[in-house]
Amino acid sequence: MTTLPLDPQRIRALFPAFEEPSLQGQAFFENAGGSYTAQAVLDRLDRYYRQTKVQPYGVYPASIEAGEAMNLAYERIAQAFNVSADWIHFGPSSSANSYVLGNAFGGWLKPGDAIVVTNQDHEANSGAWRRLAERGIEVREWGVDRQTGRLALAALDAVLDEKVRLVAMPHCSNVVGEINPVAEVAERVHGLGAVLAMDGVSYAPHGLPDLAALGADIYLFSAYKTYGPHQGVMAVRPELAAQLPNQGHFFNDGKPRYRLTPAGPDHAQIAACAGIADYLEQVAEIAGSGKTDPFRRAHAAMRAQEVALSRPLLAYLAERNDMKLIGPADPDLRTPTIALHHAEPGAAVARRLAEHGIMAAGGNFYAWRLMEALGIDPQHGVLRLSFVHYTSPEEIESLIKALDRVL
């Protein structure tokens, strides 16, 4: 393996999980389902629960401090995204955030308007939008290539016209793993005066993107998959958020943070999300100095680390003819969320890998429509091996050896 841009020992020292006795000897390859939590996040969560576990935004010192800790999270996540803090909304999960957004758009769109969804998505970013058909909205599907799982721009062009008001798609699929051409899609969508809603749940763990450069009007991700607590975070262009119907209490209509998150997420976990930005700055420091801001530097280093880690695994898989890799074999084109279709059900293979110290998973991962499009029985599913920048070269070697034993 080539020299890595991030020292694995220094990175792993920032995660208590790697010192946890009960996890020793276990290599974690289910990061797409949820990552380990960074110490910077745990520090903020602990501090909030110990010092400011009161109702925030009040008039007494502990309450004021609690509100300030929450405000900091909005500011820090926005900074990582290269947007202003009024873009950021916290909810209980990305699935809940998608559901609320779908309902809000149901009141904003008019019968006869059209939206475009894909069959590459996790159902949370598809089902909520597809339900708008019940309100007279035309729902069009941008379908994947049935051999590769790819979302081709030509297929998008075939379903776009002046009736389209929204396009909802993943930054990358939680099964295919290919990084979709978001900037090119944004140019097409905005050319029609439409909105681009991006499910970033499967991409964000590999580096929070520069939203100003990406061009999405909505970007959703899960904090618990990006080294933080179990929260859903969504960035919504403020001008768009102001136009959408209020989804909260009527008397909070004038409060932007309350209008699209009616469920009342955990205050302590919101405050702890500032630790995600703290952690990304630590990654940037380990990556070394550079002209770019720390969040872009962290993003670039995390991606470069993952590409280097992916190469030996993808090369090994290319030599096997007893399973099919879903998505591209080129690590530069994908995230390290690697799904394999095998004659044996994915969950059964994962169970046998567990006997060799490999923590992986099998199933359809709520990508039911994608499985059907690829000709895979959703009940049979795939084996998914997902890792991030804190995975070590030794763990990749252990995975390859385990695969040799169980397949």
TrEMBL record:
Superkingdom to which the source organism belongs: Bacteria
Keyword Lyase in record: yes
Gene Ontology terms, MF aspect: lyase activity
InterPro entries named in the record: Aminotrans_V_dom, PyrdxlP-dep_Trfase, PyrdxlP-dep_Trfase_major, PyrdxlP-dep_Trfase_small
Keywords per UniProt: Lyase, Pyridoxal phosphate
Annotated ranges, domain Aminotransferase class V: 28-399
SUPFAM superfamilies attached to this UniProt entry: PLP-dependent transferases
Pfam family name, one: Aminotran_5
PANTHER family assigned to the protein according to its UniProt record, in alphabetical order: CYSTEINE DESULFURASE, PYRIDOXAL PHOSPHATE (PLP)-DEPENDENT ASPARTATE AMINOTRANSFERASE SUPERFAMILY
Protein name: Selenocysteine lyase/Cysteine desulfurase
Organism annotation: Devosia crocina
Lineage of the species this protein comes from: Bacteria, Pseudomonadati, Pseudomonadota, Alphaproteobacteria, Hyphomicrobiales
